[in-house]
Design goal:
The chain has one domain: Rieske Iron-sulfur Protein (3-layer Sandwich), CATH 2.102.10. It is mostly beta strands and 125 residues long. The termini are close together. Strand 11 and strand 12 form a beta hairpin. A six-stranded antiparallel sheet has the order 8-4-3-2-11-12, with no helix packed on it. Strands 1-10-9 form a three-stranded antiparallel sheet, with no helix packed on it. A three-stranded antiparallel sheet has the order 5-6-7, with no helix packed on it. The protein contains no helices and twelve strands. Bound molecules: FE2/S2 (inorganic) cluster. FE2/S2 (inorganic) cluster binds next to loops.
């Protein structure tokens, strides 16, 4: 099973987010990985209300309460660990989760061959 390194564990502090892109069926998908309550989760960077990015390209994903991911456009609130929308126009829907794991001091995206980060392109290890 291919796995691609996204970011070092030490670069992903609690409630920080790191954006990356990957290809699926010829389409470039923007995504982010974050750490919440010590666990690492990743989602496509698309709101479930209208398919636009959750952040305003400023890498801010958390609501002021620091307990929810927030869509900056209309304020939908998502549970960080599940991606489920608990308030807002898409209540009940969930962000598209990606399979990630943390090992060897890094976070890995599973089932892809290549990703693009702001820093550099990463290939399968
Ligand atoms: S586009 Fe995200 S809540 Fe409307």
């Amino acid at each position: 099973m291919p796995a691609v390194r996204i970011v070092g564990s030490d670069q992903l502090q609690e409630r920080s987010a790191f954006k990356f892109q990957f290809m699926r069926e010829g389409l470039r998908i923007e995504a982010f990985v974050t750490r919440f309550q010590g666990r690492v989760v990743a989602f496509e960077n698309l709101c479930r209300h209208i398919p636009i990015t959750i952040d305003y390209d400023d890498n801010r994903f958390y609501a002021p309460d620091d307990r929810h991911i927030v869509c900056q456009t209309h304020g939908a609130l998502y549970e960080p660990l599940t991606g489920k929308c608990v308030r807002g126009p898409c209540e009940g829907a969930s962000l598209h989760a990606l399979r990630v794991e943390e090992r060897e001091g890094a976070v890995w995206l599973l089932n892809v061959d290549r990703i693009q980060t702001q820093a550099k392109e990463s290939a399968e290890d």
